[in-house]
User: Fold this.
Amino acid sequence: MSLLSRSYSVQRPWIAVALSATVALSVMSVCVSSVSAETTSTAPTLANSKALVLYQQAIEANAQGRSEAALQLFEQAAVAEPTYANTFFNMGLLQYRKQNYQKAQQAFVRSAELSPTDGESWYNLGLAYEKLNNTQQALASWQRIPPGNARYANAQDKLAELQRAKPTVASTPATTKPATTTTIVKPTTTPTTPKPMVTTAFKAGTVELVAKDFAGPTGIAITNDGTLLVANYSKNLIERVSGTGQKTVWVKDGGLNGPVGMAYDSRTQMLYVANYLGNSITRVDAAGKTSALVSNLKKPYFLKLDNNNTLYVTEQETNSMSRIKLAP
Assistant:
């Protein structure tokens, strides 16, 4: 799924820092080894109405660039509902961006405690420990990520990197410096795309309104973090829809001309948009920057991306279908 649409790589819809890619307040040190593997493996739904409102306000504040306000709202949401992992994850990301690594570490510890199978929390916790020169706990955090988890490969790279640079890390954690000072790998979540909100269960066979007041809604796509993207044909824009149904403009104009069908590439986080009136296809990167992919089509309408990096497009004017090979 857009602050945690927790990917940047990595929304729980929302925030991402240059961490894993796609955070607690107490300054007391918490050892990773104290985190019980028996802790609840999934975060509870955010059923507390006050916490839900505060969480969404925090996401909106972050999307508007008001990170301090977002952090304060997340802190209030954590007080109202202290068992929701995504709140602490987003707090950690914001604290990390401010270089408050101690507070970031504390928040990621809480996120990992509440959702111990969340590889992003463990990966980012290791990065925070690394910044605090606590190599032993960084290693312990990355070792908690099991094979098959999306962050496993990154964690193994960090483990190998530190072990090569500091073979005696385990015996001298207090004096060991971080293995590298280069830019860390960004997390699967980005600060501009929070983790999607988890709400009450949606029963099979029921119809529920998600959002309204679009301008000729056409194509729909879903990002890695679960954020909904909706094309507005009449206004040449794409809107993001949060877990509570709030809409924000993500892309406007920028080559869009009668947007209809859309296809999202989870590998590259690239969105492809068919421009019915512009006879073209526009691509949009994770930051919302647009560029032309192809032109001279004949009323392109529906898009479908396969597993071999091939994009298929139907063309209504010629009653045909074409395909486009995308870069690897």
Summary: The radius of gyration is 21 Å. The CA atoms of residues 134 and 237 lie 46 Å apart.
